[in-house]
Structure formats: C-alpha cells, structure tokens
C-alpha cells in the first residue's frame, strides 16, 4: 500500500512538472516548419478574382521560399522570420511597410514585434514613421536595448542610432491603393492587413514575428495587437509560436497569442483544438474578426480564421527524406504542392 501511494505521488509530481504530462510527447517528424500570413478580413472579389488571387498566391510562395532558403543555408528561425517579414514589408500588396494604411492625420505609422521562444526575449516598435523595415527595429530593441517596446519618435530615433535603414519622407510608404482609399474616404479596407511569420527551426526553437501598418484612419496614435507581446505575437519553446491578424482591440482584450500558448502548454490541448476554441468561441466575426497562424514544438500547424478569408501558407521539410511540402490559400481553398 505504501509503495502504491508513493507511485501515485511520483506520477502526480511528474504530471505537474512536465506541463500536463507532455513528457512523452513524440519527437518532431519535421526538420523545420515555416508558416506565414498576409492579413485577414472580408476579402470579397479579392478571393474570387483569379488575377488578384494569383498575385497573392505568388507572394505567399515567394515568402515561404525566402524562409526556406535561410533555413537550408544554415540560418536559424529568427533569421528566417526577419527575412520573410522584410519581404512582406517591401511588397505593396500587404499592409506592412510599403502599402501600409494611413492614419486620420495623414501619416503612415508602423508597428512590429519579434519574439524568440528559447529564452522568451522579445522586441517591438509602435507608431514608427521613418523606419524602412519595422521588423528590424523590433529585433534591435530586443538585442540592443534593455526594453521590450519603444514607440513613436523615440523608436524612430533609436532605429537611426542603430544604423537601420530609414526614410526621410513618410510618403515613401504610400501606394496608389492607399491614396485611392484616401481619395474615396473608404473608412475600412476589405481586409485587416498585417503580415506575420512563425518558424520551428531544426534546433527545435520557435520564433514569431508580426508587422503592420495598422487600422485605416486610426486616430490618437492608436496601437493594435501586432506589437503587443502576448496579444498579437508570442513564442515559447515549451508551447507555440503565434502571429495574429484582425481587429486588434479584441485580440488585445483576449490576450490571444499568450492564451493560445497557455492552453497548449498548461491545459495540454492540441494546437488545433486550442486555436479553434479561441478564434471561434472566444472571438467571433462581430467581436474579434480575424485569424492567426501558429506552430507548436512538435511541428503541428494551425491557421484558423473567422472571417471570409486570410492570406496564409505553410512549408515544412520532413526529416530524413528532405521532402518539401508547401501550401497556401486565401479563403477556405488551399493550393498544395510537394
């Protein structure tokens, strides 16, 4: 009886110490995983027009292959995330960097964040107007300052002091699409833009990054969820890496990114189960329109959205065979190739 009692105590202690009994979790079968998104919302004709959809599919494909080249070349997950998001920030199709939405005051104000799961280190910038690649500024905050988030003119000045690429004229970020919205005074674009990338690299490290131009016509230096660690961006090697896109105020209120990590890490829920619960039960189309991308430490992928569409894609390389599997989509349709 005494031995039986001790066995129960040992089992309970093991269960608590390993995050809901995850000690027997299987070894990942994937050498690395890359997941990307380019915004979610009401897509309308964007999803149905083959020419428009084709441009987005091509951009997602390019982004995934940029990440693949970094990882195949010996780079780590953080390098891959930065390279992918830099590409998105340079592509006027997306609401990040060039192509960002404009504020009510007529400025482009950009946000970004990056987080590494191996040590929970993170950096973020909000409301920058002159940083060419906000994801690089976020990384600099993480690595070259004692802080996690810098904002406004201070963040711009910090980026300049770090020697990052900057632009003198804020209109650098404007595109014909942006100015058309201004001219016609469309209070809302058809998608809640934001770009993101999450990676599980060959060392088992998780990294998440997010970058955005924010909400069209935002006032009073509004900041959304993208640069808020735990709301729009989070990574934890013992849980998941996640990047969100959607109506930021609701993602902040529900701490969506940390919430997903906690449900997987502490409740033992599968990534798919936890992500589905948050997006469809805690959030909804009226209060929390949007989606997320995530990868867990075992290489599982989730990409749920509760609106008409989300630009998204994934790529993974299997261990041993070296086989590459890639897929991307806008609405519930996916194109997959191997």
Looking at this structure, what is the CATH superfamily of the domain at 27-97 and 190-337?
A: (Glycosyl)asparaginase
Helical residues, percent: 25-40%
Name the strands of the widest sheet in spatial order. Answer: 4-3-2-6-5-1-11-12-13
- Average pLDDT works out at 87
The number of helical elements comes to 10
**What is the name of the CATH architecture of the domain at 27-97 and 190-337?**
4-Layer Sandwich
Structural class: alpha+beta
Content of β-strand:
15-25%
Q: What is the terminal-to-terminal distance? A: 56 Å
Annotation, overall tally of beta strands: 13
- The CATH class designation of the domain at 27-97 and 190-337 is Alpha Beta
Reading the helices and strands in chain order gives HEHHHEEHEHHEEEEHHHEEEEE
> Would you give the CATH topology of the domain at 27-97 and 190-337?
Glutamine Phosphoribosylpyrophosphate, subunit 1, domain 1
Could you tell me the radius of gyration in angstroms?
20 Å
């Amino acid at each position: 009886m005494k031995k039986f009692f001790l066995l129960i105590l040992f089992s309970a202690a093991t269960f608590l110490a390993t995050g809901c009994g995850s000690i027997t979790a299987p070894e990942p079968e994937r050498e690395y995983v890359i997941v990307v998104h380019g915004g979610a919302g009401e897509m309308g004709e964007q999803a149905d027009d083959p020419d428009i959809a084709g441009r987005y599919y091509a951009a997602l494909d390019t982004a995934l292959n940029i990440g693949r080249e970094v990882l195949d070349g010996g780079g780590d997950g953080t390098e891959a995330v930065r390279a992918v998001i830099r590409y998105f920030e340079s592509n006027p199709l997306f609401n990040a960097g060039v192509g960002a939405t404009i504020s009510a005051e007529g400025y482009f104000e950009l946000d970004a964040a990056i987080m590494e799961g191996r040590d929970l280190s993170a950096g973020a910038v909000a409301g920058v107007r002159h940083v060419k690649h906000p994801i690089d500024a976020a990384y600099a905050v993480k690595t070259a300052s004692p802080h996690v988030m810098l904002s406004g003119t201070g963040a711009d000045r910090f980026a300049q002091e770090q020697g990052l690429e900057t632009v003198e004229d804020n209109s650098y970020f404007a595109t014909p699409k942006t100015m058309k919205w201004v001219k016609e005074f469309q209070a809302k674009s058809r998608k809640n833009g934001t770009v993101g990338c999450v990676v599980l690299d060959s060392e088992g490290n998780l990294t998440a990054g997010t970058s955005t131009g924010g909400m069209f016509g935002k006032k009073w230096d509004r900041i959304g969820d993208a640069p808020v660690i735990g709301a729009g961006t989070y990574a934890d090697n013992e849980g998941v890496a996640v990047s969100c896109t959607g109506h930021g105020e609701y993602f902040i209120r529900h701490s969506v990114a940390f919430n997903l990590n906690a449900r997987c890490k502490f409740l033992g829920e599968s990534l798919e189960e936890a992500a589905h619960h948050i997006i469809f039960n805690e959030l909804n189309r009226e209060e929390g329109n949007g989606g997320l991308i995530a990868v867990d430490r075992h290489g599982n992928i989730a990409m749920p959205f509760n609106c008409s569409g989300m630009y998204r894609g994934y790529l993974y390389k299997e261990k041993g065979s070296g086989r590459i599997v890639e897929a991307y989509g806008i609405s519930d349709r996916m194109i997959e190739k191997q």
